[in-house]
Specification:
The complex is a heterodimer of chains A (about 120) and B (about 110).
Chain A (H helix, E strand, L loop, with lengths): L3 E4 L2 E4 L4 E8 L5 E7 L6 E7 L2 E5 L6 E7 L2 E7 L7 E8 L10 E2 L3 E5 L1
Chain B lengths: L3 E4 L2 E5 L4 E7 L5 E7 L5 E7 L5 E4 L2 E5 L5 E6 L8 E8 L9 E3 L3 E6 L1
Parallel strand pairs in B: 2-11
Antiparallel strand pairs in B: 1-3, 3-8, 4-5, 4-9, 6-7, 7-8, 9-10, 9-11
The chains are: A mainly beta (about 120), B mainly beta (about 110).
């Protein structure tokens, strides 16, 4: 247990569906991240939030829409996805983005399959 | 080529043997993170290194950051089946230290045969 939970753990959705991924951290951290992990590729940082404010959007298609209502919760809303979006989606959190460098703590991930 | 190269890509060792995994960058590493991942699961934080020449240990795992801060090695002593998994290195190449410019290696898959 890393203190970061993600639901659901597995998700199969059609290209016309709308679904959401949820992440919750119980570590008192202020920064949260969404990553995409695909086979034979390095981890891809998608979005970064610091104190609920989005600070990074790495050219992610608009079919992915993040939401961070507070420092403990992070959502990734999905709609009209493509088969190439199938991957493991990982949520992470860290103390903050300012000052010293902090390690990130990861959730178990959501395995997404788009059919 | 990858910004952060890990070698080897995969490794199979006999239980009890020592092994080393390397992580190399063409840029200065201001923070270097080692994680372990079980297949299809999240990453477990192992260690973070920041200073050139720094060395940290946790149980039978030792990580070092070389003096030039462009390479790190992860050494496992007397490997056990519980060490099996994918080892990932992540690096902060931003001098500002804002954690937003982490780059990642592709991982090294380790199998330990009993």
């Amino acid at each position: 247990e890393t203190g970061v939970t993600q639901t659901p753990r597995h998700l199969v959705m059609g290209m016309t569906n709308k679904k959401s991924l949820k992440c919750e951290q119980h570590l008192g951290h202020n920064a949260m991240y969404w990553y995409k992990q695909s086979a034979k590729k390095p981890l891809e940082l998608m979005f970064v939030y610091n104190f609920k404010e989005q600070t990074e959007n790495n050219s992610v298609p608009s079919r992915f829409s993040p939401e961070c209502p507070n420092s403990s919760h992070l959502f990734l809303h999905l709609h009209t996805l493509q088969p190439e979006d199938s991957a493991l989606y990982l949520c992470a959190s860290s103390q903050s983005l300012a000052g010293r460098r902090w390690e990130q703590y990861f959730g178990p991930g959501t395995r997404l399959t788009v059919t | 080529s990858q910004e952060l190269e890990q070698s080897p890509q995969s490794l199979i060792v006999q239980e009890g043997k020592n092994l080393t995994i390397n992580c190399t960058s063409s840029k200065t590493l201001y923070g270097l993170y080692w994680y372990k991942q079980k297949y299809g699961e999240g990453l477990i934080f192992l260690m973070m290194l920041q200073k050139g020449g720094e060395e940290k240990s946790h149980e039978k795992i030792t990580a070092k950051l070389d003096e030039k801060k462009q390479q790190s090695s992860l050494h496992i002593t007397a490997s056990q089946p519980s060490h099996a998994g994918i080892y990932l290195c992540g690096a902060d190449i931003s001098r500002a230290g804002n954690n937003r410019k982490l780059i990642w290696g592709l991982g090294t898959s380790l199998a330990v045969n009993p």
